[in-house]
Amino acid sequence: MADYQPQPEHKFTFGLWTVGNMGRDPFGEPVRSALSPVEIVHLLAEVGAYGVNFHDNDLVPIDATPADRDRIVRDFKQALADTGLVVPMATTNLFTDPAFRDGAFTSNDARVRAYALQKTMRAIDLGVELGAKIYVFWGGREGTETDAGKDPLDAGKRFRDALNFLCEYVRDQGYDLKFALEAKPNEPRGDLYLPTTGAMLGFIATLDHPEMVGVNPEMAHEHMAGLNFMHAVAQAWDAGKLFHIDLNDQNFARYDQDFRFGSHNLKQSFFLVKFLEDVGYAGNRHFDAHAYRTADLEDVKAFARGCMRTYLILKDKAARFGADAEIQALLAEIGQADPNLAGLPGRYSRDTADALKALQFDRGALGQRGLPYERLDQLTVEVLLGVR
Fold first, then answer.
1. What Å distances lie between residue 372 and 24, 311, 332, 379, CA to CA?
2. For the segment 173-226, what is each residue's pLDDT rounded down to a tens digit?
3. How many domains are there within the chain?
4. Closest CA to 124 of 92, 94, 100, 96
5. Of 168, 180, 164, nearest to 105 (Cα)?
6. How far apart are CA 243 and CA 201, in angstroms?
7. Inside any domain, residue 158
8. Which range of residues forms the domain containing residue 29?
9. Is the pLDDT of residue 1 over 70?
10. Which residue of 95, 152, 182, 279 is most buried, as measured by CB atoms within 10 A?
11. Does the model's pTM come out above 0.90?
């Protein structure tokens, strides 16, 4: 029996804002006491995490003095040294402060857009100082409630200009840093620009330095739109753009719930873990999730342990799926090759096109062939239920 204990090679990370969440929601005040960044680092070390990520203001309050900033960062570095935790990713909070009420990079106010760039450059400096190699952009206010108020072409150009500027800043500073864009369909705005991972991938191709920019898909965000998260991750991987990933769970088409990973959609979580392990994803597995509002501090620790433990259990289930003779026989039956199609269609050539056009297909037989997906899915469920 596997012990499912997290190890550094699993690269499990949490944000300061995750286990540090105080349980506030739109209808209720906080239910847990605030934890300092140093306390959060020690909590994550206790539960076995590999790293900790942060927004700039998770670590350094937006109104901190330079002396406050230096003290906070010094203490945080000491906590990292004491625990061995690392900082793989950082990001900027461009959505909480009232200045960003109409967005940051897409704001109609040029002063807000300039301030957002200034804030982000300083936050990038901080992230790099603490070791971050990935910088995530979630456009939490980059959207509208009414299209009367903002032109989507102007908004897209402003966002593009901001990312181009920041890519040049990173290059000019000589930083070893890549950007990852995080999509979300809505909330806190009525509609957010670039609402899906696919939209982000299309947008990246329009940038001056697309090689520097990838995506950070989040499970809950794709599920909010009713989409298949694993398919979005596969598209990002195929494009060479899966720079980071946010793991959590979510009831389809609800508000952003950020549940513990694997707590709601076990089959979707299983296929996601299986995909990441099958392709050899070597990046961090970041849990962007929150404990239930009912949790006390000990239950918050149980939440964090649960995210990692469930991932490792599903990783073990994926290995069982791959080793199951009956499942593999069904997969072989489904994907059986036809010797008459050897080498076809392959890459295009005039000869292969002519050969393909000359083939005779039994359309009736093609339509009559059944595929054993019911049996295969049932076996998948049985693997998950632990009876295989």
1. 47, 28, 11, 11
2. 999 999 999 999 999 999 999 999 999 999 999 999 999 999 999 999 999 999
3. 2
4. 92
5. 164
6. 12
7. yes
8. 8-322
9. no
10. 182
11. yes
